[in-house]
Amino acid sequence: MALVGLKPGVHPFEAAWKYLMLAGMGGLIALAGVILIGGGSPATVAAGAILLLVGFGAKAGLVPLHAWLPDAHAQAPAPVSALLSGAELAGILWVLHDGLHRARVLLHGATWPTDLLIALGLLSLVVGVGAMAGQRNLKRLLAYSSVEHMGVIALGMGFGGIGLLGALLHVITHGLAKSQCFFVSGAIQTRYGTVDGEKIGKLHQAMPWGSGGLLLGLAALAGVPPLGPFFSEWLVAAGGLSDHATVIPAILMLALLALGFIAIAYRAPRLWYQPMPGMRLSPEGALEAVPTALLSVLLLLSGFAVPWMLHWPLPR
Question: pTM here?
Answer without folding.
Answer: 0.86
